[in-house]
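> example.struct
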């Protein structure tokens, strides 16, 4: 599985990365592990999955985490994740 991560501020990309996870684990575990890796690499706390974020990800294989999804102050407007390849 490959997931694209992007941090945006004022509708512009400020950081982006693709995380690949080929472990023999469930899809959900791969998503969580990839999110943790991206956040670790960018020195961010892992965001909270709010109900609208979960629903968007279930049906579109992408989601946005707004600022209020993070437990700390962040210098971007949102983090976007999108599954590129399963």
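> example.seq
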């Amino acid at each position: 599985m490959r997931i694209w991560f992007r941090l945006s501020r004022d509708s512009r990309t400020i950081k982006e990365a693709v995380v690949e996870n080929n472990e023999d684990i469930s899809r959900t575990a791969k998503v969580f592990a990839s999110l943790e890796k991206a956040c670790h690499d960018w020195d961010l706390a892992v965001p909270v999955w709010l109900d609208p974020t979960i629903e968007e990800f279930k049906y579109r294989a992408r989601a946005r985490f707004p600022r209020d999804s993070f437990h700390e102050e962040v210098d971007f407007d949102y983090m976007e994740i999108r599954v590129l390849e399963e």
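> remarks
The CA atoms of residues 6 and 50 lie 18 Å apart.
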